[in-house]
Amino acid sequence: MIGVHGIEWNAGVWRSRFFPIWTGQVFSLLGSELVQFALVWWLTRTTGSATVLAGATLVALLPQILISPIAGTLVDRWDRRWVMILADGAIALTSVGLALLFASGAAQVWHVYVALLARSAGSAFHWPAMQAATAMMVPDRHLSRIGGLNQGLYGFAAIVAPPLGALLLGLLPMHGILAIDVVTALVAVLPLLCVRIPQPQRELLAERRPSVFADLGAGLRFVWSWKPLLAIILVSMSINVFTNPAFSLSPLLVTKHFGGGAIQLAGLQSAFGFGMVGGGALLGIWGGFKRRIVTVVVALFLMGAGFTAVGFMPSTGFGAAVVAFGFVGVMSPICDGALLAILQSTVPHEMQGRVLSLLMSGAKAAAPLGLAVAGPVADRFGIPVWYAIAGLVMIAGSLLVFVLPGVLRIEEGAPSGSGSATTGSTAKAD
To answer: How far apart are CA 47 and CA 53, in angstroms?
Structure first.
C-alpha cells in the first residue's frame, strides 16, 4: 500500500515496528512525570518559596522556546532514531547525576534547576523526532488515531503521576525515585535499538545546505510561504496566550470564586485528566471526520464553549464547572491530535522536525506573555472573567479558520514552490 509522500506500508508490519517504540515511550513518559512531581515537591518542601517554584517553571520552559527551532533543524539532518536514543540517554544520565547528589546529601536547589534545564533540552529534541518518526512509520489514515492515543496517554499520566509520586515519596528516598526514571528511560531505548525507523531518502538529505542555520532559514521560509500553515501557527499561539494562564489560575478559581479547597481543586484537575483520557480514546477509535481540519475546528469551538461556560458559572456552580472542565478535557486531545495528524500528513518528511519545533516554540513562547497579562486582569476583574475571555478567543479562532483563505484546504498539502527543494520526499517503510 502506498501512503502520502510515496511511503510504502505493509498492512501489518507498521504495527510491529511502531507499537514497541510507542510502548517504550509510555514507560518513559510515566517515569518523567513521576520525577517532575517529585522534584517540584522537593523544591516546595525544601524552600516553601513561590519564587523558587516560578523559577523552576521558567527553567523548564526556556529550552522549549529557545532550543526547539535548532533542535528541529538537527532532527531533520540526523537519524531520528538516534536522536531519540541520545535524548532519552541524556535525560537518564541527568537523573543518574541528580540521584548521586541526593544519595550523598549534597543536592541543592541549583542542582535541580540544572537537571530541569537538561531534561527540558532533551525533550526539545525528543518530541519532534518522535512525531516525525511516527509520520514515517504510521499510514496516513491512522495518524489521527495515533494522535488520539498519545493525547489520551498524556491525560493518563497527569492523573496517575501525582498520587503515585506521592505514594513513592513516602516509600522511597529521592534517589530511589530518580532510579525509576533511569529504568523507564532504558525501557524506552531498548526497542529503539532493535527497530529500524525509515528516514527521508539519502539523496534528498545530501541536497541540504551545509549550515544548520541555512536549514533553519529554509524551514522558516517554508512556513512563511505556506500561508494556511502560518495562519494555524499564529492562531495556536494566540489561543495559548489565553488558555495556558487559565489552567494556571485554576487553584484561585477554586478558592476565591467557588470557596473550595484542595479536594475541590483535585476534583477539577481530575475531571480534566479523565476527560483527556476519554477524548484520546474517542479519537483513537473514531479517527475524526474525513477532513481532519473539520475535527480541529469543531473540537476547538466546543473547547471554547466549555471555557466560556466556566467563566459565567456562579459561585454555587462548582459541580457544573467540574463537568465543563471534563468536557474541555475531552475536546482537547481531539483538537490537538487531529491538528498534529494534519501536519504529519502534509508537511514533507524532511521538513517535519523544523515545522513541528517551530509550532512547539511558538506555543511555549505564548505562555509567559499570557501569564504576565492574566494576573493583573484576573485581580482587577475576577478570575472567571479570564476564563470567559479565553473561551471567546477559542471560539473566535475556530470561526477564523472558515474566513482565512486556504486553511480549510490545508490537507491538500503545500503549494508547489513552497519550502525546500526536497519537498515530496519518498522513503520505504515496508
So the answer is: 9
Secondary structure of residue 2 in the 3-state scheme: strand
Decide if pLDDT at 55 tops 90. no
Judge whether 421 lies within some domain. no
Q: Name the residue with cell 515511550.
A: 25
Q: Residue 57 sits in a domain of what CATH number?
A: 1.20.1250.20
CA end-to-end span of the chain, whole Å? 9
pLDDT tens by residue, 107-161: 899 999 999 999 999 999 999 999 999 988 888 888 999 988 888 888 888 788 8
Confidence (pLDDT) at 307: 95
Using an 8 Å Cβ cutoff, are 330 and 284 in contact? Answer: no
Residue type, 412: E
Whether residue 384 contacts residue 290, with contact meaning beta carbons closer than 8 Å, is answered with: no
Helix (H) / strand (E) element for 9: namely: strand 8-9
In this predicted structure, what is the pLDDT of residue 189? 93
CA distance 264 to 268: 6
Does this model's pTM top 0.85? My answer is: no
Residue 347: all three cell numbers together = 508537511
Spatial CB neighbours of 133, under 8 Å, sequence gap ≥ 6: 21, 80, 81, 84, 197
DSSP label of 427: -
- What does the alpha-carbon distance between residue 145 and residue 152 come to, in Å, rounded to a whole number? 11
Query: Residue 173: what are its φ and ψ, rounded to 5°?
Result: -75, 170
Q: Which cell numbers in the block locate residue 122?
A: 532533551
In Å, the largest CA–CA distance within the chain is: 64
In a domain, 3, yes or no: no
428 in any annotated domain: no
Q: Which amino acid is at 375?
A: G
How far is Cα 168 from Cα 121, in angstroms, rounded to an integer? 26
Decide if 430 is inside a domain. Answer: no
What gap in Å lies between CA 39 and CA 166, rounded to an integer?
A: 11
Q: Please give the tally of structural domains in the chain.
A: 1
Q: What is the pLDDT of residues 18-35, one digit of tens each?
A: 989 999 988 998 888 888
Q: From CA 263, how far away is CA 268, in angstroms rounded?
A: 9
Going by their DSSP bridges, the two strands 428-429 and 8-9 should be labelled as: parallel
